[in-house]
Hints:
59% of the residues lie in helices and 10% in strands. It is α+β, with helices and mostly antiparallel strands. Among the domains are: 1-41 and 272-307, Alpha-Beta Plaits, CATH 3.30.70; 126-207, Alpha-Beta Plaits (2-Layer Sandwich), CATH 3.30.70.240. The strands form 5 sheets. Strands 2, 3, 9, 10 and 11 form a 5-stranded antiparallel β-sheet that branches. Strand 13 (403-404) and strand 14 (407-408) form a beta hairpin. The protein is extended.
Amino acid sequence: MIKPVRKVKIIVPKDSRDELLITLQKEEIVMIAKHDANTFINTDHEDEIISRTSNALNKLSSYKKKNRKFFHHKTVAYNDFIEKKEERIALLEAVESRFDELNFLTSENREEQKLIDNVNGFKKLEYTTKELNESLYTTFTLGYVPENRWDFFSNYTSRVDINFVEYENDNFGHHILIYCDKDESDKVLTQLERFGFVKKELPILEEKIASYVTTKENFIKENNKKIEEIESYLTKTVEEKELELQILEDQMLSEKNRNLVIYKETSSDVAFEGWISVEKANDLQAIVRKVTLEYQLEFEEPTEFDEVPTLLENKKFVKPFESITNTYSVPNYRELDPNPIMSFWYWLIFGVLIGDVGYGLLMVVIFGLYSKYKKPKGEMGDLVKIFTYSGITSVIMGILYGSFFGVEFDLLNIIGSLFGNNNLSSIVLQPMNDPMTMLIFSIGLGIVHIISGLVMKVINTFRNKEYLKGLSEGFSWIFILLGLVIFAIGLATDINVNLTPVALVLIILGLLLIIVAGGLQKQGVLGKVFGGFSGLFSVTDYLSDILSYSRILALALSTAVIAFTMNTLAGLLQTSIIGIFFSLIVYLVGHVFNMAISLLSAYVQNNRLQYLEFYGKFYKGGGYLFQPLTFNTKHINEITKTEEQ
């Protein structure tokens, strides 16, 4: 239901501002106006720390142990959450410093390895490169010949007088040292390059290359020891201190949220304006008094010109379905909350669309466990709960359809056979075997769904004292649809009572309401006489809406057909032990795929039926949610209000 709210104005001394906002975040009862996206508020400090912390946590995630718990509910004491910020920033800086050092050492090792790779083929060279470079009469040239040019190079050098020494062979190719008279060097090198020789530029060293490589390798080993120490620190940090960094990010998100609050100030005081639930208004004074004794509270009832936030308060079952409505449009403060009745229909239709005992049980178990132990927040948490609840109706409809992972399943017959009675059956509908009956059921369910929307329209219009509108657009179509249903029942059944007169009376009464009540709303004599007839054109809209419910048959049928097909394919493979193994894979993959597709389709189609066919009859929306000032938490699931965790 939509709870009444009041305007509130809070005035406190300037030095109490931050403490008051933190306390209000803790209590979560006041919605304070915030700056919109077009107003510049400097939150660079908070944004910087948030970004740095998020980056550090992402890097640390690679050091987590794989056996860490998936279902981990993170609870932090209130005092622990609002304090120790400086300590956590120091921890962040320490982690960042280690990552910087790690990056430096890794980069240094990479550069050192490049130097080693450059000279590695000449580790057996008997001279230093400085000695070769200082020769007066002979040119010494180091290089290599790629493997695919080596035969070509060897054939050429065997026919001409070329002096060279071959060393090691690696990924570059054959490493060689060419030596010749200085006067001949340019000519010789030009010729050799045509046959695959590639000159290498080596550093001028006073030590032999083998010693140079050993020095570099020892340097890399020392760096690797430092890297191991840093990685050991990071592994320990992610195990023992990750939560502290997560708290820091949530602290800064919450601090940023406080800084976006709009307030007015004088030289000594600050004033906040916002909204509060009527039920919580009396609690606010005690909350503010905990912060300061110098305060002023002003409450005011909203006027008809105020844009009042919508405070929704529903039972545990209805609560998650609010996100379905909010995705479409938040309820208007001045209309009836549609969630209680919509939640029932959403829950029921979801089960009708899935209609399989096996899939329903999996939904209850998988999503129920995820909701219980992981405790997802926001729209994700709502969706998980909706899937959990809808698993129950999926099981119920699966019993009525007689389907368990696509296999015929007659629960009452199984129970009856245990007591010697084989005449019982729980199967009422079978989309595959009797699609026409299923279509009639789908259309009938849709008509009742639409009628419930029209009842909501009547309630809303009567609340707003729009009685003629309620009669012409609500009661009229309720009577017409009920009359059509009764007429259809009379044709389809063999009951002795003649239902046709009753049906005709309801249909005629509905038509008269459209014409008379609709005409009375028009201006002028002609408008009142003929204006009501325009309402009769809505018959095409209602026909279209009713036919939309045939999609229930389509989706229920597709789920059953795919499940049956997967079972048949798996059964065809069960001719050997290997075949049985592969059939289990077909069962698993096929049913997981079918369940995933069915869930997605049921979610989309159910939303469509609620938004267009149901809400289209009465719902206005256009409101905005009552969102109290609270702690923004990305990682923490719960902040307890005591010091004990």
